[in-house]
Design a protein that fits this description.
The complex is a heterodimer of chains A (about 160) and B (about 110). With about 160 residues, chain A is mainly alpha-helical. Chain A has 5 helices and 1 strand. With about 110 residues, chain B is α+β, with helices and mostly antiparallel strands. Helices cover about 55% and strands about 20% of the residues of chain B. In chain B, a hairpin with a 2-residue loop joins strand 2 and strand 3. The chains are: A mainly alpha (about 160), B alpha+beta (about 110). Chains A and B meet through helix 1 and strand 1 of A and helix 2, strand 1, helix 3 and helix 5 of B. Strand 1 of chain A pairs antiparallel with strand 1 of chain B, so a sheet runs across the interface.
């Protein structure tokens, strides 16, 4: 049966399959503004913690929580409601990349903040989360690229 | 585990190939998403989905979101296996055109 198919037709069919796969992978792209928006919210939280003022904390913490929810909902809206990409498109390397960025951001923030506090530097939480924010802003787009490349390579086809 | 190449006429038809390729990367996809992605009419997509369902390749789920009817489709295990085999067959055709010895067993002339 396949003997009746010319190689160029097979090539076109494979290209079509790749294109449709890329279309689904494209839906999983995290928008560029997600990283700076998250970073700004984190810095605001750090500043509030350093202020030690209950009123400031009482305002900033709810704003932070609502802001994070809104940012995440908006970033994943649209086509995600109409389609669910396969979970295994993100392979173990992609998962490691995600965990790496989270670990670097949280670990970096806490590490810097506690180190500065031990050294008696003023506003340690603000400096700590600012470092984490820089990691997010720089690392987020890199994570995006890694995930996109991994998902495009991983069609989930055995063999 | 390697996939045994098997060309599938039913999947290879252009519109169905696009539908199956789209579904292969998803857990499930809404009828409207497939229709919009492939620029198909409702009736054309319905016809193709019915063909794929009758072949046992996809499952169609009908439900409601609020009062609005919602139809979604997913490639089932049989369909995914057939798609994987079809892709392997296409890859084999391309590989053979580049190197006719590519898939011959070693020692065979």
């Amino acid at each position: 049966m396949s003997g009746e198919i010319y190689p160029d037709e097979a090539q076109r069919a494979l290209a079509e399959i790749e294109q449709r796969h890329g279309q689904v992978v494209g839906l999983m792209n995290i928008p560029w503004w997600y990283w700076p928006a998250t970073a700004v919210l984190q810095v605001a939280l750090g500043v509030a913690v350093d202020s030690r003022a209950p009123v400031v904390l009482g305002v900033v913490i709810p704003v932070y929580v609502v802001g994070m929810v809104v940012v995440n909902v908006v970033a994943t809206k649209g086509s995600w409601r109409r389609v669910r990409p396969r979970r295994d498109l993100v392979d173990p390397i992609g998962v490691f990349a995600i965990l790496g960025l989270v670990g670097l951001t949280v670990g970096g923030s806490l590490g810097v903040a506690f180190s500065l506090r031990t050294m008696g530097v003023a506003y340690p939480a603000t400096w700590g989360v600012s470092c984490g924010a820089v990691v997010l802003i720089v690392g987020g787009p890199i994570l995006n690229r890694i995930l996109r490349r991994r998902m495009l390579q991983n069609r989930g086809i055995e063999g | 585990m390697s996939v045994k190449p098997k060309f599938d006429e039913l999947i290879h038809a252009p519109t169905r190939l696009s539908i199956v390729a789209l579904l292969a990367s998803t857990e499930w996809a809404d009828f409207s998403f497939i229709r919009d992605s492939l620029s198909l009419s409702d009736s054309a997509l319905s016809k193709q989905l019915t063909t794929l369902e009758e072949a046992g390749y996809i499952d169609i789920r009908k439900g409601f979101v609020g009062k609005r009817p919602r139809t979604s489709a997913r490639l089932n295990r049989v369909g995914r296996a057939a798609f994987d085999q079809h892709v392997a067959a296409l890859q084999e055709i391309v590989a053979l055109s580049r190197d006719p010895d590519a898939t011959r067993p070693k020692g065979e002339s």
